[in-house]
Structures are given as C-alpha cells and as structure tokens.
Design goal:
With 154 residues, the protein is mainly alpha-helical. It has 2 domains: 70 residues, no CATH class; 73 residues, no CATH class. Strands 1-2 form a two-stranded parallel sheet. Helix 2 runs antiparallel to helix 3 and helix 3 crosses helix 4. The radius of gyration is 17 Å and the shape is globular.
C-alpha cells in the first residue's frame, strides 16, 4: 500500500498512526490519533503553544479517513529522483536524532546508493527539527545551499 521508501524508513509509531488515521470503524480513534501523532512530532509537546497545536491538529480533522488512506497509499515512484542523484544532483538529509516517526539511519541506507552528492545532517531534536532546533537546522541548510551554489550548476 505505501511506497518502498516509506515502508523501509517509517517507525512502528508511524505505521500504527497510519492505521488509526484511516479507520472508518472508530471515529473516536481517528480523532485521538491526531493528538498522539502531533505529540510524536515534538521532543517536548507539552511546551508547544496551544494555538499552534490547535492549528496543526485542526487541519488534520478536515481530512477524512478515506482521504488519509489515499494520501498514505498514493503511488510513489522515485526513479527520476534516483536518476538525478546518480548524475550528481545534491541531496541533504536533515534528520532529528530523536525522531519517533522516521528512522534516520534507514533513510540514509535507502538513499545513499542513489546519490553521488549526499550530505547527512543529524541534529538533536525530533521530527520537527525546524521547530526544536531552528538555529542548527538553518545553519546546516544554509551551509548546504552555499556549498551547492558554489560548486554546482543545478
């Protein structure tokens, strides 16, 4: 149902959430999972501002279980991306070391054979390193963009 890259890199927490997001049998579970999923995204979810939590969870409530199933099971074909990677197209993996949803080592293992120019940045933080570790993530991202702009025609 899900593509091979996600199948090989997702954590049990992610896959358990997928099933609950798509349930058409238990509407209570489809609501509870949104809070559980939100909490899994952050290192310290109790310190996330209520308005941010409400906005993020609120957006997911607009997605019915049937739509969630379509999003999760959509066809994925990385062939063209992998072809670019073999030609030297640069890729940076920014990954939170405490990510509860995606296994960063599995992502590297999955993508490394396809990219000649792969930069891996492991950062203290969760799935939402852009929130948990803004400065470090931006430093890594800007450094990568500067390097790619300096040496590449991409």
């Amino acid at each position: 149902m899900i593509g091979p890259v996600v199948a090989n890199t997702g954590t049990p927490t992610l896959f358990e959430a997928f099933g609950r997001f798509c349930s058409t049998v238990d509407s209570t579970q489809t609501l509870i999972v949104r809070n559980d999923f939100f909490n899994a995204c952050f290192t310290d979810p109790a310190n996330i501002p209520f308005n941010m939590k409400s906005a993020w969870i609120g957006m997911t409530v607009l997605q019915t279980p049937d739509i969630s199933a379509l999003v999760i099971s959509r066809q994925q074909d990385a062939t063209k991306l992998f072809e670019l990677g073999a030609q030297g197209f640069p890729l940076q993996i920014l990954h939170g070391k405490a990510d509860k949803l995606v296994d960063g080592e599995a992502v590297v293992k999955e993508l490394k054979p396809h990219f000649k120019d792969l930069e891996i940045s492991l950062i203290e933080g969760s799935h939402t390193i852009f929130h948990d570790q803004q400065e470090e993530m931006l430093d890594k991202l800007i450094g990568f963009v500067d390097r790619v702009n300096a040496v590449s025609g991409w």
